[in-house]
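Standup notes
- DV: blocked on the single-chain target, sequence here:
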Amino acid sequence: MTKPFELEPYDFLAMHGETTRRYFLGLGAAGAAAWALHPLAVGGAERAPQLAEAISKLEPYFNEQDKFRDVSRGKPVPHQLPDEEKQKVGLTRETWKLEVVADEDAKNKPDIRNPLTIENGNALDFAGLMKLAEKHSVRFPKVMTCNNIGRPVGTGIWEGVPLREVLWLTRMRRNVRRVFYHGFHNDQPAQMFRGSLPIGRVLEDPFGLPPVILAYKLNGDWLTSKRGGPVRIVAPEAYGFKSVKWLQHVTITNLYHANDTYAKGNNDVDSWLKTFAATLLAPTNMKPDTPFAVTGYAQVGVSGCRKVQVCIHNDADELPVGDPYFTKANWMDAEIMPPPADWGGKLPGDSIPSDTMGFDDDGAPEQWPMRLSKLHWAKLMPGLPPGEYHFRCRTIDENGNAQPMPRPFDKSGRTSIESVAFVVK
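- DV (later): unblocked, structure below
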């Protein structure tokens, strides 16, 4: 497909911090001071009342734990079990245990000298995990998104111990190619939800990515049962099905293929987070010749986000033939909101915790927008004559690809261009 325009080549590593540096230089002292006026206020420019009001109503950047959408599986869903039952099956910090074993079914069995099992009395418990955390804990921001749902379930700062630190406790030596894992499933094999990762991704973090972790906190608070606590996997660059909740079992295998439950649904189990935009405040019924504000967010995937763009199509005009991704539309740049003064999420002290990956010592993001997270955008649209219209939004990633490119296929993360119908009368 022909791109609507070309942008200069993108260097993943050289980009680190450059977007934020350019933003601050262009903002100036007056604009920087104006940030304090509102968590997502844009300094240095006087806003039209419609736009200022719309920006003031934007959602917080980070979501509180109980504000995450729930897409849990199970009958019953594990977090709905009575407290006594959670205690019994290891779904509390006091009773949680993690087994890490070798795959007995692999042709060339992994060489594991110290399997961690309940039977042997050396399964990892929560106290043992916290001992590892004293030296190895990490925290990083991440948007959690379901592979087949067009909107994220929530964004927060996740904290945990890199999975590799636990794997090394088994004294694994050879014949290791992949890691399988699953959580509590009501002791019913048919309900087991499985995820897997290549051993290389678990042991090493490419391109500056955060590590795959055994997460036990979100936004500084212990993971609730509803969010997958006491311990879950969080895979930074992956969709939610890789971040298995209620973790209890890890299997080190020499098998080369994935065993993810999602593979059975014709899903791409190796897809990374994509970049896409969607609306929060969109038009419905508008008066003629009256400007109106539109706001939204964008999920920032592994390819980053350079722009958010919007367009309006009058339904009286025919759409161009052979242009399914609207590359010929009259796209206009929206404004990407700067880092917020108030991040939300009920963070400890209402500030970014120290040593959070992606932030400097003052709690400012080292790169903006932050990958694997989100951004907010806003645009004041011109007044329109009476008629029926469709509003659309899209992203341009740091490689110059216009949404839904470069990976427009469903089952590997949804990036369809959102379309909102409205009437002016």
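- Follow-up: Residues 133 and 161 are 6 Å apart (CA to CA).
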